[in-house]
């Protein structure tokens, strides 16, 4: 029976799981659960995940939730997942657990103060050295995927806010780009909903600015004529 | 070289790591870092954990922080740790990751509203069935240890508050007791600092109540004389 992935691509951990499946050629069925429509709160979905959160998976009779636990399970239970994603080496693997746990407590993309200090720590600690990925790696692991998916949630911010937050962190920007390149075309495809949301927001902001700006600008224009 | 555990027994994840070492006969040296004295903020400790948080370990040249990552590392890297603590079976292990990740986002002992709803979920989901431990187990895993250490932080609360919070959750109470019994005498020994803190607080509350009560009660007493 095919792996079932219950996901809403608007949520960052859902995207991480979907990208992981795609990149590693895991045969899965995506079952869309729309948070905005409250579909995660139905009794049917509570059968899959009693905590009513996304993502969740069902692999035959085995059900699992929490995105990090899911990523680790997929890396271990499916043949053909490259060792880079969740190395068998106990030291390397432990460092990945450490990043993922740190991520849990420090990287909610919504809280700006925590985020700002976390971006500094990413830049100065997790991305120190010359590696292209976290922990000095030359290939991405599940930690890169999970954290970058969290950070791309920033895409929906106003360009000005995004630049203010990410601007000072060149290594973080480069690492996001490296992770994106290493997992494309899947990365972009799965993030398409976020980019669409961003475009909608920009459109609304432009419209608002135009209405506002229009009324402000009319006077000088008129006065010059 | 002996494993070094940097810990403050006043902090719940520190206690979980120390108890784990003791229960499993892991030879270690405890290096006390007093948070109340700001010892975790020194440049010396930043060499061990640049995030300046406790607990942290150093096993030879290998350094690690985040308590869940440490528990998993210890379970994997030290011979003689029973399989129950972090089962080799991928399905069992995945469920443990799921609990630990859920713990991260849902069980900060300080936030009462989250805590209350989390206790309900512990009772109705993670402790469902007849098992004496989480996930229906008959022996504790690192998930039991980590969560119970978090919850014993409630010990320092006023008895009334503690009863109000824990009272409705009989299964949770029994599970805390089961985990305590399964890891004693180490559990009690490591929690001694918490019990002492509790006694100090009770003493202060009694003293305050006595003074307050005293001044309130003096008048009627005087009037009766």
UniProtKB/TrEMBL annotation, chains A, B:
SUPFAM superfamilies in the cross-refs: GST C-terminal domain-like, Thioredoxin-like
Signal peptide position in this chain? none
Q: Which parts of the sequence are annotated with region: Disordered?
A: 201-225
Lineage top rank: taxon: Eukaryota
Where would I find the GST N-terminal domain in this sequence? Answer: 1-82
Q: What's a Pfam family this protein contains?
A: GST_N
Query: By its UniProt entry, which PANTHER family does this protein fall under?
Result: GLUTATHIONE S-TRANSFERASE T1-RELATED (PTHR44750)
Q: What is this protein called?
A: GST N-terminal domain-containing protein
